Amino acid sequence: MLRRRLNRLLGGDERRVDSRTIYVGHRSSSTTEAFIPPKFCDNRIVSSKYTVWNFLPKNLFEQFRRIANFYFLIIFLVQVIVDTPTSPVTSGLPLFFVITVTAIKQGYEDWLRHKADNEVNKYPVTVLEQGRKIRKESEKIKVGDVVEVEEDETFPCDLILLQSSRDDDTCFVTTASLDGESNHKTHYTVPDTEKDLESLNATIECEQPQPDLYKFVGRMHIYKNEQEPAVRSLGPENLLLKGATLKNTQKICGVAVYTGMETKMALNYQGKSQKRSAVEKSINAFLLVYLCILVSKALVCTTLKYVWQSKPGQDEPWYNEKTQREKDTNLYLKMFTDFLSFMVLFNFIIPVSMYVTVEMQKFLGSFFITWDKDFFDPEIKEGALVNTSDLNEELGQVEYVFTDKTGTLTQNNMEFIECCIDGFQYKYRDANSELDGFCVTDGPVNKVQEKAGREREELFLRALCLCHTVQVKESTKQSQGDGLIDQVDGFGVDGEVPRPPQEQRGFIASSPDEVALVKGAMRYGFTFLGLESKTMKILTRNNDVEMYELLHVLNFDPVRRRMSVIVRSKSGDTLLFCKGADSSIFPRVRQEEVERIRMNVERNATEGYRTLCVAYKYLSAEEYAQADAGLREARLALQDREEQLITIYNQVETGMSLIGATAVEDRLQEEAAETMEALQGAGIKVWVLTGDKMETAKSTCYACRLFQRNTELLELTVRTLDDGGRRREERLHELLLEYHKKAVQDAPPVKAGVTRTWSSATQDYGFIIDGATLSMVLNSSSESNSSRYKNLFLQICQNCASVLCCRMAPLQKAQIVKMVKNSKGSPITLSIGDGANDVSMILEAHVGIGIKGKEGRQAVRNSDYAIPKLKHLKKLLLAHGHLYYVRIAHLVQYFFYKNLCFILPQFLYQFFCGYSQQPLYDAAYLTMYNICFTSMPILAYSLLEQHICMEVLLDNSTLYREIAKNAMLRWGPFLYWTLLGVFHGLLFFFGVRYLFSNPALQDNGQVFGNWSYGTIVFTVLVFTVTLKLALDTRHWTWINHFVIWGSLAFYMFFSFFWGGIIWPFLKQQRLYFVFANMLSSVSAWLVIILLILLSLLPEILLVVFRKPRGPHARQKKPVQSSMGGNQSPRSSARPLLMRTFSDESNTVI
């Protein structure tokens, strides 16, 4: 890596080419030229951030980039340089504590990364060198080495497959650690390679490393006995990726093409962009306020000091004459040093330890999501996963949810329902299924009436059996006993079609749709038997085995939205079979055929089924020769291979004949409707973003109760734009204005008191838009129109109950999320999806959630949180999110409050000590107040508090609205807490001062001094702020009891201990026996108890005198009202926002 950076710096990259040449086995292709092996990076993986040498400087630099840490460093340096009233230890020790704790946490995390790297780098592998097998450490593999991998081993680097133990020269791999897909993928050896790899003389020319897991272009030159070298194309099907695992294959040999940090897995390892929560922004705003308070206090004290000293005799009294050096000091310099001294004295108003407490709270709090048993899914035997703990509280602030449809709202568990051949419907029924209007004319089970003609039926079923990339699982003795299970959807095919036991098979496929279609063909008597040596075998319903030579596969891609195969029958006919979305097939077939099929396709889509159209084409010898030559040439290209292939695909897939269409059902996720209803009840807007057809997606929205039967749908699609008979742009403008008037201008005003833009009136409208129309809205021909359209579109959507965006490309999903995220009010957005096409919107939203579904784990890898099922989103937001937000909001407000209580008496004390910067508290108290005496109770509270129990939060989704829009960290609650801190600070100081109006407080008439004064104030302070938290605690556990009463006991013990011993390392011991003497005075006891009671009296009175509002919030089930409905346990806004102890929050232990 260092070499690469130096090259770039010195201009070496100018000579960098777009491809690399690799010598297989490090053997030169030429016997005459000297072989100089090219230099590539080694196979070491480095995911760690630090080394032993750079850890300290790098970590310190990163920590001091945080403004709070840097501020306290400056204060510490001022204390060291300037003669300040407090010891540098008072700010140095807390800062050291924060820096050390953070460094230990980050160091430990990096040590784990080092450990994981070493496990990978030291893993033993087998390398073939000069005909011998040599065991090496993985990190010593070089580009060009021939590596042997056995079954169930992971590939140590990116390899080109040269040899496989399987007869058909293929191997199976799983890529679960790369994209999470647990299904078996088939990879192929390079054709015409030597069986004896020792004699193989070849070079590989391929592209430079790039991160796309599914893209690879290259070619292999094979040299044989002075002949012209044979050239073979290389693609993703020949590349075995590091991290993937070999399955169902005894062993393979491959040549290393990318190693170490240039492997695709390493290139995909990148930190996601840092997401910041709204709470962090509030903390920064509050910090600025408290910084202004600090500066103003220092300015006031500095000004008053010089005003007071300007009076005669005050500046230089007879008992404190100035030295000559003091007299010669510049006045302005002295004023500046005094200002800095006051800043140091009052700097504890800024809570440095709050940052480390917040970090610990987020880190430890995230375990509650991982440990929640309700999130455990027995099917996949996994629970929830937290990829980032920085956004826990953001889960309680979500205003918009953007959800994918397939695999998120639905199960991605496909079942063949029916097909349509030449306009005639064929619906398969089980013997037990009920008759419906469409089934009556169909024959008995496994018998199809020849409505479309036997020849057309068989052509259609052959297309289903041949046009796919499904593999048949090999039958083993064990699996025959257990019954084979399909790799994708987990449903066996046993018993669906009567077959002899040896014919029962399971299927391996990359998509559940393909398995469903192959199984659908089986139901009608056509069985796919497998692919052997480029020959596809199918068993017809006459029990004849037909064989087809597979010539080419024109792979599926999301742009074309179709896939094709070219096969040759035994009779010599060359056929192209194609299946895909209706929008991509209909323009490529004869239009008179379309009308026969379209009605069935639209009806199936309306019923919520996924539809695919099937077409075919006979290729003449000339057409096939032209297509074959074009495909071979495109596959050998190193530059723009994808574009060249798509061009050839489009040329071949024209002039086809439409045979029919299929309908596959993708069932709703369990509790999908209840989850969506709960989210809407919580005031969250739900948008569905999908690539599916509008009719299919619309029926799913109805099933999920996002659209109600009385919802008026506002449709903005290509169909509605073409209705008006005018230019699309004009029609778009007209429709936007019409919908805006209906949904925005004529809509009744939102009810007062509802915190979100949500009312029952908005539920009357649902909005539907497709990808093509969205492109027109976002990318209009004129910039002014585009901005205007976008604003109109956004306002309409914000006033609709739900929005459906269909036919969306992945990038469009991200564009929509970004548009809403950046709209007025900056609402908090959440994206949830399960596939690679959802990654862009997951990364774009404030909170990204991945579902551990069947479309791979790329969404999970890129998400902030991952859950097994959609139904878990309800508890994640309404219970966990709600509680996380309340806890951390209370933590932040409480920290500012307790530090204001702490430092205000110090400020008031200056008015009574001639502004001499005399500290009120001992240095030990200043240092340990935030670290020891008051830190653990608030940490325990912020982890364990449940102001309302989880069952009630889940039963009453409206409670989520109470904390919307950062309600507990707005300026109102902040002002309340600040005023409370001022009240308590004034009470502590002047209450103790009233006691000291008669300073002879002991039996022997001995007078208390200033350190006794400060100690009494500090004792009242520690007890009051801790008991205030005890009053706010509504959910008591033994941990709360332990830390609250333990902290108070520790303070008492420490004060006795600190003042009861003569410490040899202290120059002066201010508190020697002060605490013990203080407690020997009955007056001191009386004042301490009275002041604590007076401070907490307002909150105690609130508990006693407030009338009950609503049912008991701690009870497990909502109370039935007299009208028979469920009463909402909503509390009044004030007790929740101000966090006072109310009747609805009585403690349950």
Automatic annotation (TrEMBL):
Taxonomic superkingdom:
Eukaryota
Active site at which residues?
404 (4-aspartylphosphate intermediate)
Residues forming the P-type ATPase N-terminal domain are 37-91
Segments for region (Disordered): 1112-1133
Question: What EC number is given for this enzyme?
Answer: 7.6.2.1
Q: Which residues cross the membrane?
A: 64-82, 285-308, 339-358, 924-944, 974-996, 1011-1030, 1042-1063, 1083-1105
Name the InterPro entries on file: ATPase_P-typ_cyto_dom_N (IPR023299), ATPase_P-typ_P_site (IPR018303), ATPase_P-typ_TM_dom_sf (IPR023298), ATPase_P-typ_transduc_dom_A_sf (IPR008250), ATPase_P-type_domA (IPR059000), HAD-like_sf (IPR036412), HAD_sf (IPR023214), P-type_ATPase_IV (IPR006539)
User: What cofactor is this protein dependent on?
Assistant: Mg(2+)
Q: Which reaction does it catalyse?
A: a 1,2-diacyl-sn-glycero-3-phosphoethanolamine(out) + ATP + H2O = a 1,2-diacyl-sn-glycero-3-phosphoethanolamine(in) + ADP + phosphate + H(+); a 1,2-diacyl-sn-glycero-3-phospho-L-serine(out) + ATP + H2O = a 1,2-diacyl-sn-glycero-3-phospho-L-serine(in) + ADP + phosphate + H(+); ATP + H2O + phospholipidSide 1 = ADP + phosphate + phospholipidSide 2
Q: Where is the composition biased (Polar residues)?
A: 1118-1131
What cellular component terms from Gene Ontology apply here? early endosome; endoplasmic reticulum membrane; plasma membrane; recycling endosome
Identify a single GO molecular function assigned to this protein: magnesium ion binding
Q: Which UniProt keywords apply?
A: ATP-binding, Cell membrane, Endoplasmic reticulum, Endosome, Lipid transport, Magnesium, Membrane, Metal-binding, Nucleotide-binding, Phosphoprotein, Translocase, Transmembrane, Transmembrane helix, Transport
Q: How does it sit in the membrane?
A: Multi-pass membrane protein
Q: Where do the P-type ATPase A domain residues begin and end?
A: 123-264
Predominant place of localization: membrane
* Gene Ontology biological-process annotations: phospholipid translocation
Domain named P-type ATPase C-terminal is located at 860-1107
Q: Where in the cell is it found?
A: Cell membrane; Early endosome; Endoplasmic reticulum membrane; Membrane
Q: Which residues bind Mg(2+)?
A: 404, 406, 834, 838
The residues that the entry says bind ATP are 404-406, 514, 556, 579, 610, 690-692, 807, 813, 837-838
What family does the database annotate? Belongs to the cation transport ATPase (P-type) (TC 3.A.3) family. Type IV subfamily.
Q: What is this protein called?
A: Phospholipid-transporting ATPase
- The species this protein belongs to is Sander lucioperca (Pike-perch)
